[in-house]
Amino acid sequence: MPQTITTGYKALVDAAEREIETLPVEAAISLAGREDTVLVDIRDPRELSRDGKIPGAFHCPRGMLEFWIDPASPYFKPVFGQDKKYVFFCAGGLRSALAAQTAQHMGLKPVAHVRGGFGAWKKAGGPIDAPEEKKA
What we know:
Oxidized Rhodanese, domain 1, 14% strand, globular
């Protein structure tokens, strides 16, 4: 019997955005490099090597987010124990909305995500470390 999906990804993202702060890309760019802010890149490692990175952003693959945030987890990352603002981004702004919502539900605060993600950052001229060149 085929599955019947009752709540699609758009509804999940819309619900997340009603709960969290969504930053326009220009606001996110202005936060880059600040001591009180951590930009959190939740893209897949292949996306980083293919498309480049935001300088200074902390990379946390989406699949490890909950484990890296929770201090009781053996995978906890101290970056998430700091008194800072956490600004999540992905490639287009969908996964990061869900990630920011999850982080907020876990008690991390303040959190936000970047509308349009890395794609919007790049289009707006935000700083980027170029993709790694493939070796022949």
